[in-house]
């Protein structure tokens, strides 16, 4: 097929980690299915831990429209054993630049032009590489929200203007259109300025000004004031254009692995809205002590629950994010208190490692979600109108928790979890907040707001919705940047 007849082609660069690769793949699916684009998704061999479930999801993408290419692994053995996840991720991105340049050059040559290059925000350093190869439109895909994007754009300035640790800031940080944030609630990566991850993060954000625009996985109903603030800033030339095109999350499907999962059959026998779903994402971990306290609190609450368990870690809340051990042998349920499963068998179910989360959240029996507030999980809950119990662990999750509780109103939060990172929430507080979410007045208010959020998400993705229009607008720019080739 000649370039004049070929559909427009985009290249998406996904950061390591399921929380980045899977939503990027879902975005590519939307571009292909709804708008006729083709796409190459570039991933990193280093730090990639594709589980069978994730591999099945990626394999379901339309092969005729979406292809994958993996950059070769780079050495990381010189990094300290206790290096943060962000240090490892950003080091992989930096060291892979020569491989990326060669691969991207091949794609540009074979496709006789690429409409746009879309880099995960953690891969912002790749923007000059794409621009140097003649790609006419180079964008950053922010798989989180506008609040985080606002912080990232401001971080180089903050790094210069502030000398103390961010957690010691005397006044809340006010970001455009967002709820005021205590310094201690800001991005986990920047809380220790002496850690190598901090300098890497600041350097990464210096490349944001090179973007032609930002595609963001959020929607007007979730961040209405921030959307308006960014539109105003873009109109006066203070930042590149921002396109809120979300939520893009995996649809509820008839996936065989999901359909056969025993937890769904268990949910079938429960009353509507009666079950609390407990899951800390693909990488979140609790300490040994917190695992025991959570178990005791769930038991004392008397509420029905479905808990996706992971191996505990006293290291940090992201210990499982890039750790192959969590996908290996053994059963994390062995760390639960003795007799817990037997005592709660009539009201609770614990499953190891993984559950089909989208299908679980869509189930009529689920009435609440105890979550780490990862943005993918947040959007999956918003799409189906399930209220949340916010339990942030790492990354920008504390920021998300503040927004969900104080601005969106769709979440409750244990007071102890706001006290500090890795602060243990005692069993009494767990029991009380679980009961409040599932059967209390505050929980009912959050449930009503969640139902409104569900409606707003659906409206955003409707044919004339704001997110659909934003995506159409940015794709029009990509086609226009190629002149007559793809018109």
UniProtKB/TrEMBL annotation:
Q: Which CDD domains match?
A: GT1_Gtf-like
Which PROSITE patterns does its entry note? UDPGT (PS00375)
Per the UniProt record, which residue ranges are transmembrane? none
Q: Which keywords, in A-to-Z order, does the entry hold?
A: Glycosyltransferase, Transferase
The record ties this protein, via Gene3D superfamilies, to: Glycogen Phosphorylase B (3.40.50.2000)
InterPro entries on file: UDP_glucos_trans (IPR002213), UDP_glycos_trans_CS (IPR035595)
Record keyword Iron present: no
Q: What is its EC number?
A: 2.4.1.-
Q: Name one GO molecular function term.
A: glycosyltransferase activity
Concerning its family, UniProt says: Belongs to the UDP-glycosyltransferase family.
Kindly provide the name given to this protein in its UniProt entry: Glycosyltransferase
Q: Which organism is it from?
A: Urochloa decumbens
